[in-house]
Prior knowledge:
The protein is an alpha/beta fold. The chain has a domain at 12-219 and 365-465: Rossmann fold. Helices cover 30% and strands 21% of the residues. The chain is built from 15 helices and 18 strands. The chain has helices spanning 12-18, 87-92, 148-165, 185-198, 219-224, 226-232, 238-248, 260-273, 308-314, 324-334, 337-343, 370-376, 396-404, 449-452, 454-465, and strands spanning 24-29, 43-50, 56-63, 74-78, 97-100, 110-113, 123-127, 137-138, 146-147, 174-179, 207-213, 294-295, 301-302, 362-363, 382-388, 409-419, 422-432, 435-442. The strands form 4 sheets. Strands 1, 2, 3, 4, 7, 8, 10, 11, 15, 16, 17 and 18 form a 12-stranded mixed beta sheet that branches. The protein has a two-stranded antiparallel ribbon with strand order 5-6. Helix 4 runs parallel beside helix 12 (370-376) and helix 7 packs antiparallel against helix 8. It is globular, with a radius of gyration of 22 Å. The chain starts with 11 loop residues before the first helix and ends in a 5-residue tail after the last helix. The model is unreliable at 1-22, 288-294 and 301-314 (pLDDT under 50).
Amino acid sequence: MATTRRSTSCPCFLLLLMFPFIVSSQKVVKTLPGYDGELPFYLETGYIGVGDLEESQLFYYFVESQRTPVQDPIMLWLTGGPGCSVLSAFLYESGPVEFTYVGYNGSIPSLHLNPFTWTQGLSIIYVDAPVGTGFSYSTTAENYATDDYKSSEETYEFLRKWLVKHPQYLNNILYIGGDSYSGIPLPMIVQKVHDGNNNGLRPFLNIQGYVLGNPKTDNYVDDNSRVPFSFRTSLISKELYEETVEACGGDFVNVNTSNEACTVDIDAIDQMIQQINIMHILEPTCKTASSRPVESIKGTRRILEDNYEGFLAAIESPVLWCREYNYVLSAVWVNDHSVRAALGVREGTKGSWTRCNSSLAYTKTVSSSVPYHWNLSSTGLKALIYSGDHDLSVTHIGTQNWIASLNLTLYDTWRPWFVDGQIAGYTQEFINGSFTLDYATVKGAGHVAPEYKAKECYEMINRWLAYYPL
């Protein structure tokens, strides 16, 4: 059960003067359709307005730490896409409840407690960002057009306003975390928080670090790593790999069309992996349910659309299990009127909820967030970066390559880390003065790691938050 939240002596009136609008609402959710009984944790949902006139309303789910919320850290959590609802993280990664798949008959899915929820010792603010994601909306059409700079600015504004509305958490240690495409805007947000504090902006945000899982970081570095990853995992032959390296000079992204040999080899590699599930190379591909948009070696996007009828037909006599089936349950659950009412979703603000909004008017204006990591490496913050080692979408090779480009000092060499006496992955630690960066692979996980290895990722984050070696 959530413990009693403390009172605060914060000068709330003065803080509210800084944000004269704060068009927001919040609701304490005590029950959820599909869960039997009252929730044994504190769940709050609501909206925070951002922008000059607060015409954009960002929707959030807040789960208070189930241990000691007065003392435990608080984390703002983002998800990827861009345009994928943070409800994915809430229901499939780190949140306090998850779906019960056994015996599902097509009605409102049942929920049970997640034994590996990160909220056992951490308060988490899950936010649907940018506008147009999940239940976040705007009252004007032009506000739906956004980019990396605008998205990071609005999320930073959301965080400051949320803490003004919840001043009892202002003194708690603050982290910012996310996965997948949030690897681009998240370091930008952390930079804004750090700079705001240094410039005397109030309220002061007690940020101590950031967390990124399977993070999209640098367009070239990430995409270029897919060819060596495919070779290391035996998706392509040694002969084809060596021939491609020679023909392309190690550059598998900026392929000159006049270089016929390189073009032919890249086409051959793309054919080899075309039927591979690049989110997890060992799992089957599916075409009956929605998945996250992905790209081939050549950058061609593959998008699978929602098909509920196909899903319901498939579960009657499945030939094979597909992870994408799990995602359909979230749409069935969230699009039920009773669920929306329980969550406090404003009527008429959104049509059918989709897990990932592929029609989002989003312009990717930042090709690399590495410069932000470089800036942050000169601060006193700490960072945790982790990769599912079977992820071909954002490979661990690419992530290790951009980390190496930061020129940090190696403090703890590559070694295994363990859960229940078994190797859960491999880790190394880097430092630069008082800045520390822990990198970890999660053995057997895909994109994103907690979906595949819940217990291992819970142990990883729990140790890191406690300043304990992985």
